[in-house]
Amino acid sequence: MRGNRTLRLLVPVAALWLAGCAGPTPSPAGDEPRTPMIDPEAIQTADGDQLPLHRWGPDEPDEVVLALHGFNDHGGSMQALGEALAAHGIAVYAYDQRGFGATRNVGYWSGYRLMAEDARTALRLLHERYPGKSPYLIGKSMGGAVALLAVAGTPDHGDASSLVAGTVLIAPAVWSRGDMPWYQRFGLWLGARLTPGWRLDGEMAAELDIRPTDDPAVLEQMRDDPRVLRHARIDALDGLTTLMSRALEAGPDLPPPSLTLYGGRDDLVPPLPLARLLEGLAAKESGDHRAVLYPEGYHMLTRYTRAESTFADIAAWLRDPGATLPAGHERPPGDLARHLRESD
Description:
The chain contains eleven helices and twelve strands.
């Protein structure tokens, strides 16, 4: 089963006797309060951190997008999507999230609150840069979980829906602790506290036949990219699990319109948690929440051999969230949720 393979990938509990290799964990936040600002090279956050920035598209775009990358990746990995949307007059901004890419404290987890606040900061800055154009938010995998927390609205931040024109979730990481067996939860909890610096090697994915894409050129590019992390600290995986759990809880409060995309060959995001997310959206009985299943799609829906279908659907939706999607794979969220439960 795909879910079982992913369980084994994240935390091989039997290996927790290994000694941790970490020193003191650095502070996730910066230590010099600044006024948030955006420049060609980076987004400056309120605590003084610099988040390297990538941009594609025209100077005077029809629409504006903030794109959030996945775990162990960086903003530059959104290049294929950025270039595809730029061809439709859409400007795409993507920054390196804290702990990834070329940020400070690479490899260390910053916490879901700080990551969500970074996304809200970036959205506010894009509002200021493009008056009258509310940006769209696109989140891929881990970035999808961050996107959910950033805009679903919380008691601490009020209604954040006014920050976005709409949200696209690409294989969002919403695998909560409640979906994991007890030994998985216990392994994460124990490892994060006893051996937080113990690192899981990405090569384990190959051993477990985890295929995020079917495009060998993309796999080669990722292997050669020094900004792509090859391992993950166990405390970062524990933090990622907390982020995913919180994101799934926030899912029903995602403001419309939204578009959720998933691949039938996704080996990393299990279908049942995604079904729960879709059921929460379907319960709103709003036609403004839409979903697509690409039967031959892999986890990296913007970086596999049939990614043109993904690009076409996203571009059409960004131009008009009510438009017919050209790839022809749309399903009502509730129907797709039932399909995922039956096929698991």
